[in-house]
Amino acid sequence: MLSGPPVTTTVSAEQLLERFLAANPRQRRTLLAQVQQRAAELRPLLPEQIDRLDATCDDWAAGLLIQLLVSVDDGLTQAFRDRYRDGWLAVTSAAGLDYAPLQRALIDQDFEEADRLTSEHLRQLAGEAAVKRGYVYYSEVPPIASVDLESLDRLWVVYSQGRFGFSVQIRLLRSLNGRWDQLWPRLGWKQGGVWTRYPRSFTWSLEAPEGHLPLVNQLRGVRLMDALLSHPGLQQRVSA
């Protein structure tokens, strides 16, 4: 008996979405390209699905689906923005800061603006003196409320496919046994305290190395970044 050509089975958009959300992190990475390629099919399914997801989580799958949804300027996108004016992810601030502009920038993948806002928030969290001088002293980091650093980190993780965030930088540093000199090349940063915000000095996209963003001022050495990544609130996120 002659056999015919192999039958190619393509899962439906509904099945692909279900499979993506049910997958573990490693499996999601393998499905990522397929999900992005079929964004046009998936978009009509996303508003209802996003409403059902846990907005208190830090699951980057949710952030990816939101970014796919808003990738086209149409009624679906406008309805989402109207429904979630402050952003979908539930974040809080002990200092009373408004993280909505940061969340909107991350949703739109405007990582340069998001990085600028994150630096501004860190100065606000460090206190009035840090705001006035324009940068944070390492000694001003320990008193910062854990919930605020957790909120900043969750925003970056969720809207970067898990590639950016302070917790990502902590994991990388741990994998290098605390070797700061080895961390800079991994992050795509210049070693030796060179730090600038000129756009061409950094990669403001998901093409950047893992942990590339957010930036931390290194003009005064590693003390500030060490204090930040050593903060109990962020350490707990990595250990959880």
Detailed description of the structure:
- The chain is mostly helical and 240 residues long.
- It folds into two domains: 13-83, no CATH class; 100-239, Gun4-like (Arc Repressor Mutant, subunit A, Orthogonal Bundle), CATH 1.10.10.
- The protein contains 14 helices and no strands.
- Helix 10 (146-158) crosses helix 14 (232-239) and helix 11 (166-175) packs across helix 14.
- The longest helix is centred in the middle third of the chain and has 16 residues, at 111-126.
- It is globular, with a radius of gyration of 20 Å.
- The protein starts with 12 loop residues before the first helix and ends with a helix.
Share of β-strand residues: under 5%
Q: Based on the structure given, which CATH architecture of the largest domain is correct?
A: Orthogonal Bundle
Structural domains: how many:
2
Q: How helix-rich are the residues, as a percent range?
A: 40-55%
> What's the main sheet like?
none
Roughly how many Å is the radius of gyration? 20 Å
Q: Report the CATH topology name of the largest domain.
A: Arc Repressor Mutant, subunit A
Order of helices and strands: HHHHHHHHHHHHHH
